[in-house]
Request: fold
Amino acid sequence: MKHLLISIGVLTTCFAQAEQASEKPNILLICIDDLRPELPSFGKDYIHAPAMEKLFTQGRLFKRHYVQAPTCGSSRFALLTGIYPDNKKRLENGAIVSHDHKAQPSFPAWFKSHGYTTVAVGKVSHYPGGNTGKDWNDISKPEMPEAWTRSANPSGEWKNAKTLMHGYESGKGSERGVTPVIAALEDVRYPDDAIMDLFNTELDSLAKQDEPWLLAVGLLRPHLPFACEKEFLDIYKNKTIPNYSTPKPPKGDEWHASGEFNGQYLVSENPNKDAAYAELVRKHYAACISSSDRHVGDILERLEKSGQAENTIIILWGDHGWHLGEKQIWGKHTLYEVALHSPLFIKTPDMVKAGVPTERVVNSVDIYPTLCKLAGLPTPDQLRGADLNELLKDPTAETKEIAISYWKNNRSEITPTEHKIYSQKDNKLLQHYDLKADPKELNNLIK
Reply:
């Protein structure tokens, strides 16, 4: 009888553990490179993004989300570690590589250590596929050691991650100053198609297992080059894209010469002087958004067909904003609001007030603690962000509302009404904007 009771007790414990594992939500993270809030939900009605717009009706859109750095590697460092990129090393593209992952685990590593299968596809950390070394293709040199159960090479016909990252059609790579900054061809594959091939394989595999999973997929467009299928550019053929151009700021402010745009690609005209060419560049950016939106739709359809959708948290995140002529800049790499503002969306299985956006100011570092709370996991000590669960319940909930970002030697602080930029060296206030009266940040109140 004693042995029977012990056996029953063991079985009960096993069943309880299995039930507890099955109750853990799955997590689908969709990262979109260089996606500013150029979407209908942000007032950009000329953009064709039906999949994202449909998704936004099912959860909480954070309309005042700001990243912690206006560059890919550091912004993703903040997302993945929950730590501000507040020093020189953390503001480099190698920020994730140089991080002490054992002392301060990334959220994929944290979830993996708590029973999750963690899988990355595409550009989730800085390097697509998650490896460094030659051509970002050395599997012996992972960007985030011990973080992923699997982080396969998504390069397809582009052969390696570096070529994929800046790739054109059908396996073609970029050549500095030679390949065009904008392009659109018919009946060809672009890099995100290769990423989607691997995503489909990984989701189908995860859907068959009992353990909870975290699947992160990173789409490359609208990162430069603005190259995608012609069918998406044709959407904008008869549309007028607004002229975002504003004057160049005074010397000493956050201006730069658009080095990535002008230096790495062939630019046929100066978009700051040629309005027609500027509109053409903006139309290619819009087309790249529509291309990525098509992939978002495919991702969500695949999730639904997998039978996993009801128990899956969905996050959609843009890694930073992008200047489309504002301040005479074509690129990121400033602390102006336009370079820090990006979409953030979260949907939970028990969503309340779905489709109602929030105007509260939030940060990318808030995502890590939020996911821990949603999954019932403890939070590691390093986290600096706030738990957004109250805003998931009530979009008008009171929060601290300050977004802190870093670039070069300066620090940005954005509140609901103001934007201040300080020197990190002596904490001197360098720029101050009234975002209510001056949303384009044309009048620096310090000068």
In short: The chain has one domain: 26-398. The first strand starts at residue 26 and ends at 32. The first helix runs from residue 2 to 23. Residues 26-398 form a domain with the Alkaline Phosphatase, subunit A fold (CATH 3.40.720.10).
